[in-house]
Automatic annotation (TrEMBL):
One of its GO terms (cellular component) is cytosol. Residues 15-191 form the Hydantoinase/oxoprolinase N-terminal domain. It comes from Corynebacterium maris DSM 45190. It holds the Pfam family Hydant_A_N. Residues 212-497 form the Hydantoinase A/oxoprolinase domain. Residues 517-673 form the Acetophenone carboxylase-like C-terminal domain. This is N-methylhydaintoinase A.
């Protein structure tokens, strides 16, 4: 039986470790409900080293014992980095004769239709590692041509000679009848053609051949690395004598055990990013905020998601490196804009920022690691928003070199240093604002009705400007924004997703769907090892003739289901078609264990008005201002600070504009709101 991820005792310590490109973040929930945080430098060549070091050091700083750890959650970037760096397994593909080019042909989507310099990413499976066999299944599941098992055995020798790490079997229309795929996998495993042989339908059993094959290829490409990493990490955790089950964050905002994460590695592609959105969703529910834009700024990118009524938008049609990934995930919009984004001039002499980044090494000039390119972080230093040190004094910034480089770049453009630095911030603000409109305005949500939940190392530095630019209601900054992804994972539920193709319309009604849900429930019991889960039942529906679907809750009455779809279509696309017929093509089951939110730590009462810890000149809207500095940890609950102001804490810096007020509530959240005139 799957252990309850929320089992508690009097000495419980709940730990989350989130691996990032620069730092690995550690969050610890203490027995009384308080939080402690820690950061260590990431170790890209061996990510488990940083995880173990971070957990060990965090426990030492809290005088904690490994035996007290009753919950251990991990967000990993192994799958993501393996795809992006093209450092994965050697994968082969067995497919139906005539369909060997399904990955190369892809689909007709052209994100940059008029840019002849854009090239689609190369498939993960090379043409030399693809073989065809005779078989054919119709779209309705009927067998048109039987699988030629003799031919399959003949190509087995050819496949063995390739030295593959993993092999995918993906036959046309197998989503409607996977008998041939399962039989081929059985034979090829027996023939020892590769250490890993999987059917595409075991990874994704949904229609659309390119998407399904691409998803299986991504899974096979990352599986050996992810499985090896999971094995090493579990072994080292056991050596530490931590009794807790290790839980892995997946792209849909839920948790998996390491065995399932190893077999279905593609589910972890957005692992760490989903943790931040899961946390933002919980905080939105706690603060009773309807429309929230989750805004996570790291060193190289910004990840944005829409949260409605405390639940994030989800998608089943994501992608990585322009390749489809047809698995449930939080609907994230990522842009190449972060603290390390490089400022440069285009051919017309205009100032541009990003998407290329200085990364973790060498990083911004201010980090003293050999960086020579001006970045967004350097602009904040030049404007005075960042001082001379970070991480509570453990990281000293090179202000002098930054100012010298800013002055040099400004001279090239005929600007003074402050205008140059402010220009960099304005350009990156415009880029980020476009990303926020993408998940709000383009989905039918008035951005002015939204609150911005800003976190990540740089989120609180940019939140004030973005809310001002877009007219948003407020900026909300959680207590530990720099490690929000780690903290967000602490209360994530165990979650498994299941789907099956169906066909239901006005003529057939919903008669067969309950039976399909019972079959999905049986699969959930087998995979999760328990029947003690809560199920959410969904359908993918569309107007007949459409090539896209909407995922909506299942209702056991067809007329009610139709009206639900009309309403969902109107919310998303701005219209409904009462004369059109609806069809359902997929049923989905979300199986969840343990989803209760832990209470937020409460700080009773109020204290004296907060006193500045110092003052610093900050360049704001074309002029230098004498701005007070505050220690965020010393802010009394229910206190308010008038902007401009700078709030320092271990994991981030918060900037408050002159026309904003900053309120610290009883739970330690900061609320930046426009000052009433």
């Amino acid at each position: 039986m799957t252990p309850d991820p929320h089992t508690e005792s009097g000495s419980d310590l709940h730990i989350a470790a989130d691996t990032g490109g620069t730092f690995t973040d550690i969050g610890i929930r203490l027995p009384g409900g308080g939080l402690a945080v820690w950061k260590v430098a990431s170790t890209p060549d061996a990510p488990d080293d940083a995880v173990i070091e971070g957990v060990t050091e965090a426990l030492r700083r809290q005088d904690g014992d490994p035996a007290d750890v009753t919950r251990l959650v991990h967000g990993t970037t192994v799958a993501t980095n393996t795809v992006l760096t093209r450092d994965g397994a050697r994968v082969g593909l067995v497919t139906t004769r005539g369909f060997r080019d399904v990955l190369a042909i892809a689909h007709q989507a052209r994100p940059s239709l008029y840019d002849n310099t854009v090239h689609r990413a190369q498939p993960l499976i090379g043409d030399d590692a693809i073989v065809e066999v005779d078989e054919r299944v119709g779209s309705g599941g009927d067998v048109i041509a039987a699988l030629d098992e003799g031919q399959l055995k003949q190509v087995a020798e050819e496949l063995r000679a390739l030295g593959l790490d993993s092999l995918v079997v993906s036959f046309i229309n197998a989503y409607s009848n996977d008998e041939h795929e399962r039989r081929a996998v059985e034979i090829l495993r027996r023939e020892n053609v590769a250490p890993i042989v999987v059917a595409a339908t075991s990874i994704s059993a949904e229609m659309r051949e390119y998407d399904r094959t691409s998803t299986a290829a991504i899974n096979a490409y990352v599986q050996p690395k992810v499985a090896g990493y999971m094995g090493r990490l579990e072994e080292r955790i056991e050596q530490m004598q931590i009794p807790s089950q290790l839980w892995i964050m997946q792209s849909n905002g839920g948790l998996l055990n390491p065995v399932t994460a190893s077999e279905h590695s593609a589910r972890t592609v957005l692992s760490g990013l989903a943790g931040g959105v899961a946390g933002a969703s919980r905080w939105a529910r706690h603060l009773e905020l309807d429309n929230v834009v989750s805004f996570d700024i790291g060193g190289t990118s910004t990840d944005i998601a829409l949260i409605r009524g405390g639940e994030p938008d989800e998608t089943t049609t994501g992608e990585i490196d322009s390749m489809p990934l047809r698995l449930p995930s939080i609907d994230l919009h990522t842009i190449g804009a972060g603290g390390g984004s490089i400022a440069w001039r285009d051919s017309g002499g205009s100032l541009r920022v990003g998407p290329h980044s200085a990364g973790a090494d060498p990083g911004p000039i201010a980090y003293r690691r050999g960086g020579t390119e001006l970045t967004v972080t350097d602009a904040h230093v030049a404007l005075g928003r960042l001082g001379t040190e970070l991480l509570g004094g453990e990281f000293t910034l090179d202000v002098e070199t930054v100012n010298r480089q800013i002055a040099s770049r400004g001279e090239e453009m005929g600007l003074d240093p402050q205008e140059t630095a402010e220009g960099i911030i304005k350009v990156i603000t415009a880029t980020m604002a476009r990303g926020i409109r993408k998940v709000s305005v383009e989905r039918g949500i008035d951005v002015r009705s939204c609150h911005l939940m800003a976190f990540g190392g740089a989120g609180p530095l940019h939140g004030a400007d973005l809310a001002h630019e877009l007219g948003m209601r407020s900026v909300v900054i959680p207590p530990h924004p720099g490690i929000a992804s780690a903290v967000g994972m602490l209360d994530a539920p165990v979650r498994h997703d299941f789907a099956a193709p169906v066909h239901a319309d006005a003529g057939t009604g919903l008669g067969d769907l309950p039976a399909e849900y019972r079959r999905l429930e049986q699969r959930a019991e087998e995979e999760m090892g328990t029947a003690d889960f809560e199920g959410e039942y969904l359908v993918d529906a569309r107007y007949v003739g459409q090539s896209y679907e909407l995922t909506i809750p299942f209702l056991d009455d067809f007329d009610a289901q139709l009206e639900s779809f009309h309403a969902a279509h109107e919310r998303r696309y701005g219209f409904r078609d009462e004369d059109a017929a609806m069809e359902i093509i997929v049923v989905r089951l979300i199986a969840v264990i343990g989803h209760d939110d832990a209470p937020q730590e409460l700080h009773e009462g109020s204290g004296p008005e907060p006193e500045p810890t110092g003052r610093r000149d900050v360049y704001v809207d074309g002029r230098w201002l004498d701005v007070p500095l505050y220690d965020r940890a010393a802010l009394p609950p229910n206190s308010t600070i008038a902007g401009p102001a700078i709030l320092n804490q271990f994991d981030t810096t918060t900037y408050v504009r002159p026309d904003q007020d900053c309120r610290c509530d009883a739970h330690g959240f900061l609320h930046l709101t426009p000052r009433k005139k």
